[in-house]
Amino acid sequence: MNVVVVESPAKAKTINKYLGSDYTVLASFGHVRDLPAKDGSVKPDEDFAMVWEVDAQSAPKVKAIADAVKGADRLILATDPDREGEAISWHLLEALTKRRVLKDVRIQRVAFNAITKKAVMDAMAAPRDIDMELVEAYLARRALDYLVGFTLSPVLWRKLPGARSAGRVQSVALRLITEREHEIEIFKPQEYWTVEADMTSEGSNPFRAKLSKFEDKKITRLSVTDEAMAKRAEKAISEANFTIAAVEAKPTKRNPSPPFTTSTLQQEAARKLGFDAQRTMRTAQRLYEGIDIGGETTGLITYMRTDGVSMDPGAMNEARRQIGSEFGENYVPEKPRFYSTKAKNAQEAHEAIRPTSFMRTPSSLRLEGDQARLYSLIWKRAMASQMESAQLERTTIDIENEDKSLALRATGSVVTFDGFFAIYQEGRDDEEDEGENRLPAVKQGAGANPETIFTTQSFTQPPPRYTEASLVKKMEELGIGRPSTYASVLSVLRDRDYVRMDDKRFVPEDKGRVVIAFLENFFARYVQYDFTADLEDQLDKVSEGSLDWKELLRQFWTDFHGAVEDIADLRISHVIDAMNEALAPLIYPAREDGSDPKICPSCNEGGLSLRLGRHGAFVGCSNYPECRYTRPLNGDAEAAIEGDGELGADPETGATVYLKDGRFGPYVEMAVEGEDKPRRGSIPKGWDAKALDLEKALKLIYLPREVGAHPEDGEMITAAIGRFGPYIKHGKVYANLPNVDEVFDIGLNRAVSVLADKKANPRGRAAAAEPIKVLGEHPEEGGEIQVLKGRYGPYIKHGKINATLPKDLDPMEVTLEQALELITAKAAKAPKKKAPAKKAPAKKKAPAKTSTAKAAKDEGPEKKPAAKKTAAKKAPAKKTAAKSTTTKTTPAKKTPAKTKAAKDDPSEEA
Length: 910
Fold this sequence. Notes:
Elements: E1 2-6, H1 9-19, E2 23-27, E3 42-43, E4 49-50, H2 59-69, E5 74-77, H3 83-98, E6 106-109, H4 117-124, H5 132-159, H6 170-186, E7 191-200, E8 207-214, E9 217-218, H7 227-239, E10 242-254, H8 262-273, H9 277-289, E11 291-293, E12 296-298, H10 313-327, H11 369-384, E13 390-400, E14 407-417, E15 447-459, H12 468-478, H13 483-495, E16 499-502, E17 505-508, H14 510-522, H15 529-544, H16 549-566, H17 572-582, H18 584-587, E18 608-613, E19 616-621, E20 630-631, E21 646-649, E22 656-662, E23 665-670, E24 679-682, H19 694-701, E25 705-709, E26 716-722, E27 725-730, E28 733-736, H20 742-745, H21 748-760, E29 773-777, E30 784-790, E31 793-798, E32 801-804, H22 816-844, H23 847-859, H24 864-874, H25 882-903
Parallel strand pairs: 1-2, 1-5, 5-6
Antiparallel strand pairs: 3-4, 7-8, 7-15, 8-9, 8-14, 10-13, 10-15, 11-12, 13-14, 16-17, 18-19, 19-20, 21-22, 22-23, 23-24, 25-26, 26-27, 27-28, 29-30, 30-31, 31-32
């Protein structure tokens, strides 16, 4: 009997069909072990010993594999052909060794680049051992990410309230985004003019030419600096006698790009399809795992985590045959095209991303949505890489006046043979136009006349913010991280609220800019591009076997730990001083009246300074609490969103109502004479602050609103907007309302009815919602699969399983296959949720411990030593249970740190 282990259940099912009844194929569901998300999982003082843990979700998978291996002849580890796949096999082998189930079992490692019957059978015929150099590279990378995350993040939590985490690659990527934003902010536009003319020569069609020489000086893009110079040039062109001075036509060619790597696929999918990196990789994974073709599941593309650009010779020959069949033999080069890359890491040995068969054209497959679009992109790019070059003719016409002090130039290109253009053209960030610009046939020495002259004013533009495509490209150019990790790194930046997306471009949030300013001031070396890239090179040396992974960790830890120790006693005031200086251009922009930007505009006495609160950084007045002026880092909370911010006067009190923008969003404010504090109301979600009028503002300010007395007890029913949305209240009963507008117009009868429903159904379970879309029956378990609209967004429902739909997946476009993946993933997490319920009774049996833990929590950090002392006194009272008490006390002590780490896992590449 042979046991084969792969990562995913979909892959397991497919491979089981290929191998037959002599094989049992099981899924590990990814990694079976990981470093616990708490301090101490990597021990530098013990030669970087690492503590691995099988979590509750993975334990049943490991047990099932262990049970299957008992009595088996062979264990075949068939995880993915990359560093992570090698690590998964190693982890599984270690976990099974601890269970002592591998006696007399032959261990083999196989790797295949595509899920096709031929690829799998070829791999089975050529087994090997686990590549320990790849595993050690994984261990070094994992340890580095852990040490940076779990050492640096607590420093941020203590010194920079509101910050959530820092990471080895994550922080450097954030630095790129913040530096680009700074470039945009300090950019000063420069005026320039473009002078062009539509020219004709001896009856030719008009063609556009641009000023290239004026007043005996060469003209470049920014040479014409003002309108006066542009008008002089315009007049000179209109009065000159021109001659065609030169006509030059040069043949040139454009070669196709190589097939996709992980990085180039992410970039091109972002440009052409609008996919983010996660969406691209998720869709590519489904294409790799395949679809049913002729009753057999077949992978459609080769493995999608690769830095290689080479292609299997057999695949190249198949592509060439398909090109000849579809486009003709003149589109097939004389020899196959071979590509190479300068990438140094181990994944260079893999093939590029290509179709498993070029005969499976996009139109011949029944793919839908994202899969159809991405497969078409991969197929076309790989096909184009083996096609003939495109042939172009670039033509330049130079036109001069009599004394050659004035000249214009026309350029154009014509595609004489489209070659690979027939199927594919690479996208560009600058949206370069590959279209034709054909110039008429003109003769050198012939006269030329301007028909129409154009002068256009323009201004230079700041560098654009990074898109996912341009950021991934920049990170790869700098050697930061590895393409297989980019999707998760960029996702972490968004999840931590360090950046936001605006028109598909990265914009740093204030929180992100403060974090980077802190790191650049106190940990400058560790966010330097060269340092991060050099670390990647060293990791590559580990995978090559030329550097010991423990030596790499020792060198890194010595300096890094020293840097952390150096700021251990750093006071918050020192941090604020450094941040004030580093962020001065952002925090204190120059004022139009020339006054000191650091003087409080509210009291005109106090000085403005950075403040650190639980929700992040903001600017506040030094005269607090007498002056309560605050504003965001990059704006003025007391300035109006529009105009002077005055919406009008309240007819009842005569007080002026203002619209303002605070740290937590726009709000309205009214200061009534004689009242200590101004009345305020936040702008609810769904309302446009810029369209707010006085009537709506007063409604917000006068909340809560009295609806009427309840007919049963006469107690007032009120309506308001709270933390969780609109609601009505009667006594101690709160009932949610479906929308904000109902807060202002709900009547007494409706309110009484809503409250009665709430009392009858306190958990608020609503009637079953109508499905947005019905996807069909579950192919294995039966039962209808639906897409429903929930309180927190759309989700997939099958029986008792509800799986949240990813934000980037349109609920109307989700397919049955995608739904099955989400349901399977959700079902796999179910055991993890049940575990705490089984342990609950145990907590009630130890009231003393619970009380102590609660006291420690209530009294704050300063009281924790006292709790520890109390526990120590109790230990001798029960000598027989001393071992048990010690076991329980140690985790209890670490609970706060573990909870924080579990919430914001700082090791980004786990």
